[in-house]
Amino acid sequence: MSRSRFEKLNPDKQHRLIESAAEEFAAKGYEAASLNRILEQAGMSKSSLYYYFDDKADLFTTLVDRSLGLLFREIGGFDASTLTEDNFWSEMEALAQRFTALGNSNAWYVKMGRMFYRLRSDPAHSAPTERSFVAARRWITDILRKGQALGAVRTDLPETLLVDAAMGLGEALDLWVLNHWDEIPDDARLRMANDQVGLFRRLLAP
Questions:
Q1: CATH 1.10.10.60 holds for 1-53
Q2: What is the architecture, at CATH level 2, of domain 55-204?
Q3: Sequence-separated (6 or more) residues with CB below 8 Å from residue 28
């Protein structure tokens, strides 16, 4: 997709299309979601859709991008400039708690996460998900560098290895939590958020 094309679309039309896609994906799941139903609800032609998006996977990934932006706004963002050596890991725990609490209160984000990883696991359609992973990798790299500067993150291994390890652990935790979400009570999920940050700390702290 040419992101510049979509961003130049009338904001009301952008919103209507994203809202229609969100409703369809939430109701039907990724595989069963119908572009025709999305287009009918949004009042857009198929030719117009393909001017802005490559395919359904591309539309879904844009929806994920927008949802992540909304998610960060709802949890209050994250100001790395406030981190210190003493509060670095406790702030990571607080961030994980806010993400988990939002999932507890709004199941839409859990559904989105499940659909995102199903799409990513499909070699034929996984390419659009790379945009989100590139952004995640950039964020993790910046946080690890900040932690190293503060003395809260180890410096004895190559940066790329630390980032790869953090990305791998994060993806494994995401998948496990999403697959078992419905089995875990809300309060247990919140406790697990701290345990998961503890795994990162044992991996990355000096």
A1: yes
A2: Orthogonal Bundle (1.10)
A3: 34
